[in-house]
């Protein structure tokens, strides 16, 4: 590449968009960057941590990746849980220079100009923020399945098949899973082992021997509310489940790309109470709330002697 070109990488979950401000597609490092007419950005200032952000403007209708996913759909409703990361490269003589690497903090739609402007912040400026990390509260401040909660999403998740979508309400069937024994080992059909004459092959104690056949499957059932305040995972992106019943759930927001027939993973939620933490998850040793805070301030209601 003899002229300078800018390469843009947007990533959300497992999906990535590769774009360039040039008129033709550019292949670099085994990746094809698709041309986007009108792709532009503001200047990147680097004199201080607080002034190294940039704004990238793109046309709303030309934000497709190679798989046909629309980037603008990720920002529908201006709620994009999980975050979108952005990397801007400058390509010259087949060498690249990283101009910006960070995350999108705000999308701004201009319907008149039919453009989408993404406010992009670097990791350094994000870490420089002063944010509230912990509160003295009765409920647990941990988010379920985070590192402080300690529970693993993979250990609690189950697979469901989406059968219907009505707004934010999702109907589903639980995908059958293999039965496990008391030790947690998968259970198979037991097929007798026969010799060449069709007689059972015996072990050293004279008992018939068996070999594993097809796995034994079961369709588990879950009570109403089991998935409430849990998570739905698809394409590396989580969406909060606000409520659930035996075969349906409601989402906090639209999950981009979710469609009927998809098989996705969901995991149960927690209301952050000590009772639920202990009874539902047996995880009360990691509970970090303060459920016994007095309802009234003793400084004002009692005499201190």
From TrEMBL:
Pfam families: Phage_BR0599. Residues 222-296 form the Bacteriophage phiJL001 Gp84 C-terminal domain. It comes from the Bacteria. InterPro entries: Phage_phiJL001_Gp84_C. This is DUF2163 domain-containing protein.
């Amino acid at each position: 590449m003899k002229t300078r070109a800018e390469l843009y990488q947007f990533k959300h979950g497992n999906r990535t968009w590769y774009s360039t401000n040039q008129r033709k597609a550019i292949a670099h490092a085994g990746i094809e960057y698709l041309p986007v007419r009108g792709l532009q950005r503001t200047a990147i200032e680097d004199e201080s941590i607080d002034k190294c952000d940039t704004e990238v403007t793109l046309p709303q209708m030309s934000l497709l990746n190679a798989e046909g996913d629309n980037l603008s759909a990720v920002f529908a409703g201006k709620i994009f849980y999980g975050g979108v990361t952005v990397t801007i490269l400058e390509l010259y003589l087949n060498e690249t220079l990283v101009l910006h690497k960070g995350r999108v903090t705000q999308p701004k739609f201009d319907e008149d100009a039919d453009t989408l402007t993404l406010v992009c912040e670097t990791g350094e400026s994000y870490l420089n923020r002063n944010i509230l990390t912990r509160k003295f509260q009765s409920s647990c401040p941990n988010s379920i399945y985070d590192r402080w909660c300690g529970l693993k999403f993979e250990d609690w998740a189950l697979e469901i098949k989406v059968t219907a979508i009505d707004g934010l309400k999702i109907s589903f069937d639980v995908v059958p899973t293999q039965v496990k024994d008391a030790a947690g080992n998968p259970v198979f059909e037991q097929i007798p082992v026969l010799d060449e004459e069709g007689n059972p092959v015996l072990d050293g104690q004279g008992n018939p021997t068996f070999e594993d056949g097809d796995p034994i499957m079961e369709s588990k059932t879950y009570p109403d509310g089991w998935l409430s305040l849990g998570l739905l995972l698809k394409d590396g992106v989580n969406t909060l489940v606000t409520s659930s019943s035996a075969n349906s759930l409601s989402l906090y927001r639209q999950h981009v790309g979710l469609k009927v027939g998809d098989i996705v993973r969901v995991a149960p939620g927690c209301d952050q109470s000590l009772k639920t933490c202990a009874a539902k998850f047996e995880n009360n040793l990691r509970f970090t709330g303060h459920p016994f805070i007095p309802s009234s301030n003793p400084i004002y209601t009692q005499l201190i002697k």
